[in-house]
Amino acid sequence: MIHFQNIHKSYRVDGREVVALHPLDLRIETGEVFGIIGRSGAGKSTLLRLINGLERPSGGSVLIDGIDMAALDGAALREKRRGIGMIFQHFNLLASKTVAQNVAFPLRLAGDADRAAVERRVAGLLERVGLGGHANHYPAQLSGGQKQRVGIARALACEPSILLCDEATSALDPETTASVLRLIGEIHREFGLTVVLITHEMDVIRRICDRVAVLDAGRPVEVGKVADVFLHPQHATTRRFVQEYEHEDVLNDAGESVAAAKRIRVTLRGDSVHAPLLARIARGTQVDFGLIGGRVDKIKDTAYAQLTLALSGGDVDAALRGLREGGAVVEEIG
Ligand SMILES: Nc1ncnc2c1ncn2[C@@H]1O[C@H](COP(=O)(O)OP(=O)(O)O)[C@@H](O)[C@H]1O
Ligand SMILES: [Mg+2]
Fold first, then answer.
1. 277-285 vs 316-325: helix axis angle to the nearest 10?
2. Pairwise CA distance, residues 31 & 70, whole Å
3. Which of 16, 52, 237, 252 is the most exposed place for a label (fewest CB within 10 A)?
4. Could you report how far apart the first and last alpha carbons of the chain are, in Å?
5. Ligand nearest to the CA of 39
6. Which H or E run includes 289?
7. DSSP string covering 306-328, please?
């Protein structure tokens, strides 16, 4: 488990103090995929780099399975870092080394002298990330997605228990992003890793994370299960991220022109998404449901539907009751 305890971090820039992280407490559970979302400059990379000791806190501590990373140095810090892999937005591969040499690099750094064992391990990792045939290629000969796969293989070289991902898909096109996220998800399950992933994209969080923290100007303003945060955002910053993803501004315009006694947002999750709830209630209560906007999609493995509806005619109160009794979360939006 990763436990940030009253941690804070400031940098001195031109004699001035820049606060990157205000004092915060946060727990990341063993084995979860934990997302951190925030705008550029929110403090995401700083928070991530505190985990593997690339940054030192100005105060407080980061406990990993009870051990304070900030209190370690020298050999003890190096040893602990071996258990933490990291991948980067711009891959950070060594251009003058082949794919296999890049993946072997952390093993050699760690003093793993058995050449044959290193080669076997590297070959296995490259096979796992789908680059079995590219061992002797150089990074410049690879696509962005392939480079990130090399980065993932390298991060796994020392058999880490934690994988840190710093905007790992931000330089990739949407299709490649999806395949790299799928690979991270598979590796998370196969190797039982704890994954901490930072991004400025809600869609990345939605696809792969179990829980998420929303970071705003060095403060976590919302922390929770992705489905809860995504479907019912509480903080203005979170709402902006969700709206960007949903293009909700367009929907709001459309909503103005639909005559209604009441506008509601209905959220269904899991099996109830596909139940014929709306039609049954419309029939039973004589309420007409006008469709203003909505989405039927998945958050990780859970299906959801979130619809903005204009209700008119019939027994609206009975319709709201019926929706809630049918397992929907109903929010009245005027
Ligand atoms: N090494 C550094 N020196 C000075 N200021 C830094 C350094 N690293 C980050 N900062 C500042 O700390 C804040 C948070 O940065 P960062 O953690 O990189 O945010 P993010 O990853 O969310 O974009 C920013 O204001 C940034 O300018
Ligand atoms: Mg960053």
1. 150
2. 22
3. 16
4. 43
5. 1
6. strand 288-299
7. EEEEEEESS-HHHHHHHHHHTT-
Report how far residue 36's alpha carbon sits from residue 178's, in angstroms, rounded to the nearest whole number: 18
The pLDDT > 70 percentage for the chain reads 96
CA of 48 to the centre of ligand 2 (A): 9
How far apart, in whole angstroms, are the C-alpha atoms of residue 205 and residue 229?
A: 11
Question: What HEC string does 50-112 produce?
Answer: HHCCCCCCCEEEEEECCEEHHHCCHHHHHHHHHCEEEEECCCCCCCCCCHHHHHHHHHHHCCC
Which amino acid, residue 235? H
Of the pLDDT bands very low, low, confident and very high (cuts 50, 70, 90), residue 246 is confident
Kindly report, residue by residue over 249-282, the tens digit of the pLDDT: 555 555 566 667 789 999 999 988 988 999 999 9
Domain 2-243 superfamily per CATH: P-loop containing nucleotide triphosphate hydrolases (3.40.50.300)
CA distances for 244 relative to 68, 200, 211, 249, 294, angstroms: 38, 11, 19, 9, 14
For ligand 2, a single-atom ion, the residues with CB < 5 A are: 45
Residue type at position 100: A
**Which residues lie closer than 8 Å to 144 by C-beta, 6 or more apart?**
91, 171, 172, 173, 176
Reference 94, options 109, 79, 80, 83; nearest CA is 109
Domain 247-332 has CATH 3.30.70.260: yes
CA distance 305 to 246: 13
Residue 118 alpha carbon to ligand 2 centre in Å: 32
Mean pLDDT for 241-249 is 75
Domain boundaries, the chain: 2-243, 247-332
Task: Give Cα separations from 307 to 60, 86, 223, 234 (angstroms).
Answer: 44, 38, 24, 18
The full 3-state SS of 130-166, as one line of letters, equals CCHHHCCCCHHHCCHHHHHHHHHHHHHCCCCCEEEEE
- Verify whether ligand 1 is closer than 6 Å to residue 56 (CB atom): no
Tell me which of 17, 18, 37, 237 to substitute to probe ligand 1's pocket, judged by most ligand atoms within 8 Å of the beta carbon: 18
Count of all residues that appear for the chain in the document: 334
